[in-house]
Amino acid sequence: MEREYYKKLWWKIVLTILAFSVIPLLILGAVIYYQFSQSYYTKIMEDMKTLAENRSSSIDLFLEERISQLTNLAHTIPLEKLRDEAFLGKVFDILQARSKSFLDLGIIDQEGGHLAYVGPYYALMKSANYKNEDWFQTAMSTGVYVSDVFLGFRKIPHFIMAVAVREGSRSWVLRATINSDILEDIVRAAWVGKMGDAFIIDGNDILQTKPRFGGAVLQPAPAPDFSKASVPQAEEIAVQGDEGLFAVGIIKAKKWVLVIREDPRDQLTPLLRTKSLMVLIALGGVALIAIGAVLSTRSMMNEMITMERKKAASEEMALQESKMAALGKMAAGIAHEINNPLAVIGEKAGWIKDLLKRVEVSGNENFQEIAAAVDKIEYHINRARTITHRLLGFARRMEPVTEILNINTILEESVAFLENEARYRNIEIKADYAPDLPMTASDTAQMQQVFLNILNNAIDAIGKDGEIHLKTRHLAKNNEIGIEISDSGPGIPREMLNKIFDPFFTTKEVGKGTGLGLSISYSIVEKLGGRIMVASAEDQGTTFTIYFPVR
Amino acid sequence: MEKFKVLIVDDELDYLETIVKRLRARDVDVSGVESGYLALEALDRSSPDVIILDVRMPGLDGIETLREIKKRKPLTEVIMLTGHASVESGIQGMQLGAFDYLMKPIALDELLEKVRQAYARKLVQEGQGSH
Asked: How far is A500 from chain B (nearest CA, A)?
């Protein structure tokens, strides 16, 4: 019943502690994680956007540079010089020396035929006519033209730039083929991590560069259609159930769009790591709290149980004391009530005896009978008196009284009580009382209770065949009386030694000891201003030493 | 005939009457009263040497009576008699100047011996007083 109650209480306390510490911990963790992941995600997106802008402006710059080179060339050198293939070859070499991006150069007249050509496909190109090509017409009308990437005659991805020049009444076009490897190189720099990808698409979502994963030039892009994007942006989009982080940059020189794709698993790894770390820390925290809750609750419960026991013991003692006090009062009352009539009877008997001494009575034939009867009455009055006086003695012992006493005498009386029991068990009680022991003011009955208790325990500990030594001495230094009671019993194991004064601690069989004896003795000795100590070793017996102040 | 005057105070009339009779039979000049008040009256009237006083009495009890006796005639010796071995009231009585305290029932000869001792002390103290 009690155990059940404590168990319930235990759970209640532990669960309360857990609830009140784990819930805030989890909320804190969740909030921090949420905030962190939000800002981390934003930062990644921001970074991707910056990267896309950066890369696309690099490409823009590259294109603008090529266009400027061609425009400068076309406008500063007259056609007459340029159509000389030797001169054009020199110019091409100078251009090539600075960058390998130009594959060939051609001068085309307004009829679409080559006036001059420098490059690896001389025969093929020289005979080609562009008059009806879209690019040629666009270049002629707008002045500058940049093509999308195409495979061309050579089946290599490339694109062309054309600059048209009007000289007087005739026009001509400077056309250059640009190696799209350069574009590939710039875009490749945006392949982040192991899973990152980047590529350029044209206005129809056709790949202009080879993506890292899945796809080839001039095929549709392996990503959502960003071809109509007009501003740099970044977002997370799922493609066929696969999450991807996308950022786009706009290439202004040629309405191309740079698409950067990153794998969230790549990019968000630190975040995921943080998440698992947080979960781990939270679990550790919860475990620590749980251990702490269990430990503190256990010690609290132990404290409580000890307190309950102490309370029960002191209640038991108070009850015992009040019982004895009541019994004492009753005994005193009975003795008093009997003593008075006894006194009257005694006096009457005495009066009869007095009368019997008179001469006139001694002649009566029943004189002897009467005298004998009166003697008997006096004898039995004495007997009754002894009993009532003993009762009164008992009553006096029950009341907490202070009297001047000799501890040796009390010990002797206590031993006398147990002598029979000891003799029966063949236990010898040896006494070594100090003859000069000073008298002290204390309570005989309570002292006797202590001595009886310890002697009783000693006899029980020995069982059969053994010795009990009693010793008293006066310790002048502290003005104390020391009483030593040692037995030749089996001793008390070390681990039990500090428990023997605890209430309800007993080594006796169930029903034989209450476990209160030594506890009560302890409190009595304390109440009388003394101390009680125990020394014991297994197989070497036990010695109780009690000190009482001389008062 | 003893030379001293004894007063016995006890509310137990049978006891009082018998003990008075027995002491008179032993030629003691003794009288008995049954309460503290009467004891004080008798004290004023006949100045007994030794008073045997029951501790427990209705009305004025033994201790109070003792106190009053010692106030009025301090040299009067008082022997406390009790049916109850109340150590406290005994000690209290001694502190208030009682000669001794005895527990009922008590053998008459023992009582008489105590009375003689009490009277002897009274004589000593009177002797000192007269010097």
From this structure: 37
